[in-house]
Design the sequence.
């Protein structure tokens, strides 16, 4: 369980690594994360609450949504959260839920092997990142097919 130590009345840095399995419960197994998740930042006592700010750095393997190749991507997630003073137990704050929520919410909607991934040819299925396949991929709207025969 990732926890950060509080130094009352000041700002204290923290840094640690944790496996994805330690951050996730049985509902979300953390599949795809490669190696440890690195977390660093600081916790500050601001009087009425504790403010935890930091950054999560991790690597995740995935299948590209365009070309279907396996890829590994770096992910960086910044976070900031206020904790009520009552959340501290013996000068420690449990940040497991915060880190888990940030990792889940920060996942991309579309996983791409690279930003300019060309995907697959819709005709033959070739990976267009490896080169052109030579297929004619021009598709004409069938409602406009009659216009193709017009001579201007």
Sequence:
């Amino acid at each position: 369980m990732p926890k950060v130590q509080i130094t009352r009345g000041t700002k204290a840095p923290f840094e640690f690594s944790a496996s994805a399995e330690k951050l996730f419960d049985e509902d979300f197994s953390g599949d795809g994360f490669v190696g440890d998740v690195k977390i660093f930042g600081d916790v500050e006592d601001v009087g009425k609450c504790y403010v935890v700010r930091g950054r999560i750095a991790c690597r995740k393997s995935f299948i590209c949504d365009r070309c279907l190749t396996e890829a590994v991507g770096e992910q960086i997630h910044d976070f900031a959260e206020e904790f009520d003073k009552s959340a501290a137990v013996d000068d420690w704050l449990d940040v497991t839920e915060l880190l888990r929520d940030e990792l889940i919410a920060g996942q991309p909607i579309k996983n791409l092997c690279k930003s300019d991934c060309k995907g697959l040819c819709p005709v033959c299925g070739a990976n267009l990142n490896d080169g052109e396949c030579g297929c004619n991929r021009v598709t004409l709207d069938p409602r406009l097919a009659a216009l193709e025969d017009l001579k201007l």
User: Anything to note?
Assistant: Residues 96-105 form the longest helix (10 residues). The longest strand covers residues 49-63.
